[in-house]
């Protein structure tokens, strides 16, 4: 009731003495017990789903429900630890920086930023790099905010890479990672990064759920959905609202659920308008990346089956090698698999729709840091390490994709020069031969 009153009145939601539990199910029976708790007891906030593949399950409990939860876990012989005793303390200590307008170097890679700062930074990038950066709008939100992004291009005729972040609003590390990728593509002196920036057109949207993201900064830090009202409830899970096996698995028809899929596929302006934008460039996209948190996972379609559909074997091999590169810098270990096999059955997401309806060759979803100790409240000191290792993996994704015969149509200066020299030598040889 307290949370409902706060949401209705726009007062700040507080999580004083809310605790985060990290539960370790040991067998199938314990997984089923947790699944039953997830389905029946709405007072607990499950930050990830109880499945056989899950090493742990994070559950947020209010102080009023702690004793009941612990009694349940002890009764069922469930191992657990409390990783955060007071969630509000962590929220209070998360510092949100203000971007200084017309000073792109003031953007820090060890801080979080609100929507206004991110959008102002994007606008300044357009001015600072006017020859290669274009501001683009990928759609609109329920509250009429633009879904803003940039197109980074060094010339026409290039294949495209599309990146979307922030579709789940409480996953702040997602927009932070996407913004870091933009910065690297524009400023890095690393030859591989510069080549990737030049070789492709990049369409990048840091926050694709702007209403929800604003809400996490102004009212409820742990809000996940968009902000459409449904009676006394609010919000649709935008990553369950895409028109691909909508409401088949891993979603709910209950507006009170964090996984509420909406009243129908593409019922929400965010998913509907972004998909419309994607259709206009779909035949150009070679690689599609969606950034989420948390869990150290690289997921590929599909979420409705564990069958190795489409180019599963190529995609899994490319992904695993990229995650090998990710692990080098900080020894962070990621698991690669399709959505259904790596986490749980979940449909109506953007990556499945992009893969099936746009036929994009390589489609991945990152579940970024952490490993269940902080969950959605990733500390600032982990932002930059997370971003650095992800950038390492992104470059390796491109490299491995080319080795497997993908993403090979992007023009590259050295390739063009080589071809030109070869043609010139052929011409000279033919002139000499016939003379």
From TrEMBL:
Active-site residues, Swiss-Prot/TrEMBL: 367
Membrane-traversing stretches: 413-434
Limits of the Peptidase M14 domain: 111-401
SMART domains in UniProt: Zn_pept
Cofactor dependence: Zn(2+)
Record GO terms (molecular function): metallocarboxypeptidase activity; zinc ion binding
Protein's UniProt keywords contain Transcription regulation: no
Main localization, broad class: secreted
One Pfam family per UniProt: Peptidase_M14
Keyword annotations of the record: Carboxypeptidase, Disulfide bond, Hydrolase, Membrane, Metal-binding, Metalloprotease, Protease, Secreted, Signal, Transmembrane, Transmembrane helix, Zinc
GO cellular component labels: extracellular space
Compartmental location: Secreted
Coiled coil, from the record: none
Lineage: superkingdom: Eukaryota
Biological process, per Gene Ontology: proteolysis
Function: Involved in the digestion of the blood meal.
Family per record: Belongs to the peptidase M14 family.
UniProt name for this protein: Zinc carboxypeptidase A 1
Classification lineage: Eukaryota, Metazoa, Ecdysozoa, Arthropoda, Hexapoda
């Amino acid at each position: 009731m307290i949370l409902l009153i706060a949401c209705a009145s726009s007062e700040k939601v507080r999580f004083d003495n809310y605790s985060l539990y990290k539960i370790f199910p040991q067998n199938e029976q314990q997984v089923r017990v947790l699944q039953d708790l997830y389905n029946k007891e709405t007072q607990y906030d499950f930050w990830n789903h109880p499945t056989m593949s899950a090493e742990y399950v994070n559950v947020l409990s209010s102080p009023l429900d702690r004793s009941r939860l612990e009694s349940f876990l002890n009764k069922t012989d469930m191992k657990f630890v409390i990783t955060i005793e007071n969630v509000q303390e962590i929220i209070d200590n998360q510092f949100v920086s203000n971007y200084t307008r017309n000073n792109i170097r003031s953007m820090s890679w060890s801080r979080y930023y609100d929507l206004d700062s991110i959008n102002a930074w994007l606008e300044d990038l357009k001015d600072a790099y006017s020859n290669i950066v274009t501001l683009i709008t990928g759609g609109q939100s329920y509250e009429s905010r633009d879904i803003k992004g940039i197109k980074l291009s060094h010339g026409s005729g290039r294949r495209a890479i599309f990146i979307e972040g922030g579709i789940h609003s409480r996953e702040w590390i997602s927009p932070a990672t996407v913004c870091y990728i933009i910065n690297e593509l524009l400023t890095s002196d690393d030859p591989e990064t510069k080549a990737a920036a030049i070789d492709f057109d990049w369409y990048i949207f840091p926050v694709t759920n702007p209403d929800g993201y604003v809400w996490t900064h102004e009212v409820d830090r742990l809000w996940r959905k968009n902000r459409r009202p449904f009676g006394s409830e609010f919000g649709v899970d935008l990553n369950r609202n895409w028109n691909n096996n909508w409401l088949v698995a891993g979603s709910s028809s209950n507006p009170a659920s964090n996984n509420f899929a909406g009243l129908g596929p593409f019922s929400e302006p965010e998913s509907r308008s972004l998909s419309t934008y994607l259709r206009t460039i779909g035949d150009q996209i070679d690689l599609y990346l969606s950034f989420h948190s948390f869990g150290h996972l690289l997921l590929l379609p599909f979420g409705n089956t564990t069958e190795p559909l489409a180019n599963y074997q190529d995609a899994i091999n490319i992904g695993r090698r990229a995650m090998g590169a990710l692990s080098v810098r900080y020894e962070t270990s990621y698991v690669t698999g399709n959505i259904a096999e790596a986490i749980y059955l979940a449909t109506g997401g953007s990556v499945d729709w992009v893969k099936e309806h746009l036929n994009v060759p390589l489609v991945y979803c990152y579940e970024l840091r952490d490993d269940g100790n902080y969950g959605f409240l990733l500390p600032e000191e982990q932002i930059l390490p997370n971003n650095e290792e992800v950038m390492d993996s992104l470059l390796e994704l491109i490299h491995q994709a080319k080795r497997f015969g993908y993403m090979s149509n992007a023009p590259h200066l050295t390739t063009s020069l080589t071809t030109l020299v070869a043609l010139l030598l052929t011409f000279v040889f033919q002139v000499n031969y016939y003379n």
